[in-house]
Amino acid sequence: MSTSQIEPTDETMTTSPADTDTAEDVQNSASALSTTSSEEPNQTRDQVKKEQRKLLLRSPGFLIGVFIVLFWVLSAVAPDLLANWDPKASVRNAAGEGLRSSPPDSTAYLGTNRLGFDVYSRLIHGARPILIAAPLATLIATAIGTFVGMLTGYYRGWVDEIISRILEAILSIPAILLAIVIVFTFGQTATVIIGTIAFLFIPPVARTVRAATLSESQLDYVTAARMRGESSVFIITREIFPNVIPVVVVEVTVRLGYAVFTLATLAFLGLSGGNVTDPNWGVDVAQNYTQIVADVWWPTIFPALAIASLVIGVNLIADSLEKANNS
Amino acid sequence: MSSFIFRRALLSILTLVIILVIVTLIPNVAPGDPARKIAGGTASPERLAQVTESLGLDKTVPEQLQDVFSSTLRLDFGDSFTKPGSSVTDLVRASLWNSFKLVLFALVLLLPLSIFGGVVAAYKKDSLLDRFIVNGGVALSSVPEFVAGVLLLALLAVPFSFFRVVADPPEGAGFFLQLQHMLLPALTVLTVYFGYIARVTRASTISALESDFARTAFMKGLPTREVFGKHVLRNSLLPTVAVVGTQLGYMFGGMVGLELIFNYPGLGRLILDAVQSADYPLLRGGVLTVALIYMVATLSADLIIAWMNPRARLALGES
Fold first, then answer.
1. Structure pTM?
2. How many CA atoms lie within 13 A of B194 on its CB side?
3. For a designed S-S bond to B99, which of A47, A257, B42, B267 qualifies (C-beta 3.0 to 4.6 A apart)?
4. Is ipTM strictly over 0.90?
């Protein structure tokens, strides 16, 4: 559900009324960049970057997103710092009795599930699997997708035509369906799952980077480089690539959100690459949701909210980066 | 215009061919023996050979592709492996009908609400309501459907017995009972898509409102309702149509988690079941159907846009 093509242009000015002067400055310097690039390109460019960064740090969406993501990163890096129970052992109260499906209280902050495991501690420990898999898959997809997108966008021709058709075909099937098919056929291991998501995210990255490369390569500075007799490799890596980086950065964050989305959905469908008792948000939702109707909602709703918060956090960052790019 | 339709249709067919090739290749590259997976570990060698033959795995890949293409052209997808006696066509048709009912119901709720939300947000740009619609909606639309599904389950189905937990109505249920059963999954689709569609509508409505023709319409004293009805919406709904078109494939086949939670026998479930039981003919039929829906939906979206906006016809014809 990429909204990038239809991104409203008006949003650059909506950060807050107090920001209008900064926003205008950025607009001015941005237009200055495009018209006076021959004069002092570096100075103007640095200024634009500085203003963009300022705008970013003032945007509440960006800060909230960073805060949420950092919290889960901390949970993934040092779960024992935050969690107070073993995520795979039953919680026992002071009398030594095991607590099963007990509601949130001071012993188990977010309650226990039907196996007696602490929901809160599983939440904290559940950050690690998804925060390893999602960025890894995204990075692989971005690296390959950027490579493919830049080559096809720069050289065009029949190879581009063929690759674009194949990418389009893959994009016409919901990624989650293809992911299910591939993971089931190749085996339900963590490696296969990460590889599958990386593979499925190559087409959208390549499409975005291709479009950016295409519009860059029609600009005068590329023509100038060609006239100077620069090699294609030089033009692609030194001239075009630096200008495509902002697009790639936004694409990385957008894809990261989708990677979390897809990984959680796969885990919910039983494709987690791990054991059912391993702490994993999607698996926990799948294992417990039938109990909601019996009013035991906590083992399902908290991991569901964890998934939601991480996706929303990443998307808030992606949105702010995109706005900063377009300003 | 006709050359544009022709070109688009040709590209769609090409895409379907590529998908068919990919799906046919899957059992060939799968590790282990798919035939043994289907027949079971204790199957006799005869049974195993039989399954291998029906999978087409005793043939070379080009021969398999030839078989698949000729049978697909005859619209004959063969019989399901796991449900002997039922043809893939019948199974897919049943699931497709179920998915169609759910998607239609969801769209009937979703489109008026989200378009209205988007237009109001655009009209009251930068107001509190606008921010609420845009930020809240966008946050919700990035959440997986199964997450939205369990949240609605806890918020609505537990306190209000009106909401049914199982979306599949009992045999012979009347129209309204069916709707009642499908209400929760449809509301989940609404939750997930509202912000997305409202945001697209808002952005295009704002640019339409800022255009000269809208300003002129306001200045010559037309009432707001008329400016929107006759001038603004006609232009601003184009991107919305395009977005709905691209999302239909996902709504039909991608909401596996949602169909699982509410136990709804739609296309997503069909494909999940087919994969889990290595039922390749059923898988091929299901995936091809989802791809076909995507093709038809995006193509019709483009045609609607061309019909609504003569300017787009030129742009579309070129791309």
1. 0.84
2. 21
3. B267
4. no
